[in-house]
Design goal:
mainly alpha; 0% strand; binds the ligand CCCCCCCCCCCCC/C=C/[C@@H](O)[C@H](COP(=O)(O)O)NC(=O)CCCCCCCCCCCCCCC
């Protein structure tokens, strides 16, 4: 029949995105920048599918992803394979502004730190989502997770804008649908699998930054 050759578009699934974070860890627990960035790309895609109000948030994430990809594909790319090698390389070569913004305002280390802080928000939000009930509000879960983490690093105006974005988040049923994982039970299973993985990547990065005194990079 004419027109019946429907092109099967690869449907977005949050499961695949969160699986990307599993690929982040090397055998000796180093974090691969390539997969870290791929995970964020998928999250941005998810966020954009929720509506235009979220583009001010995703734009910043996209910008930071691009900075890291440029390093990865640049002439010193071999130093940017893992977060560990990136931090070492940038510190050894004085490529990081440590106290105030100066000649290296967009180092890999400070750029990744911004995503790292956002990963903590994600971890807290997903854990709330996992343990939520039918009448739980995504906007409240999202705001609580944000206030407990990322908001502490944001000025008032950003906190205000983020708060407004949370208010227009779709409800739990729509949210689960867009995740495209299956019914609520499946979502809970998937999150039970994904959250510990994300926590692990978060913790390894946190320890690395803490050991090198990099948690407050400007
Ligand atoms: C699904 C709802 C999405 C809620 C997202 C919650 C996070 C709210 C963050 C608001 C950030 C506003 C944009 C501006 C940020 C920058 O000022 C600030 C500092 O950067 P600078 O030092 O270079 O100036 N940037 C940042 O903190 C990085 C923010 C990155 C945010 C990425 C958020 C991606 C969220 C992905 C959603 C996936 C949800 C999946 C759930 C099933």
């Amino acid at each position: 029949m004419a027109g019946s050759a429907v092109i099967e578009e690869q449907k977005f699934s949050l499961q695949e995105v969160l699986d990307t974070f599993k690929l982040c860890l090397s055998e000796n627990q180093d974090v691969y920048v390539e997969h870290y960035v791929a995970g964020w790309r998928g999250l941005v895609k998810f966020m954009n599918s929720l509506g235009n109000v979220f583009t001010f948030i995703s734009k910043d994430a996209v910008n930071k992803i691009q900075i890291l990809v440029n390093f990865l594909n640049g002439e010193n790319g071999s130093h940017y394979v893992t977060i560990q090698s990136m931090v070492k390389y940038e510190l050894d070569n004085q490529l990081v502004d440590l106290d105030k913004r100066g000649s290296h305002p967009e180092s890999g280390s400070r750029t990744l730190l911004r995503l790292h802080r956002a990963l903590r928000w994600l971890e807290l939000f997903l854990e709330r989502l996992r343990t939520s009930t039918e009448d739980s509000k995504t906007s409240v879960m999202c705001a609580d997770a944000y206030n407990e983490s990322l908001s502490q690093h944001h000025p008032w105006v950003i906190r205000k804008a983020a708060g407004m974005a949370f208010c227009v988040l779709p409800g739990r049923p729509t949210f689960f649908e867009v995740m495209n994982v299956g019914g609520a039970e499946k979502v809970v299973d998937m999150l039970g699998d994904a959250v510990p993985m994300i926590s692990k990547v978060y913790q390894i990065t946190e320890d690395l930054y803490s050991q090198n005194n990099l948690l407050e990079l400007p």
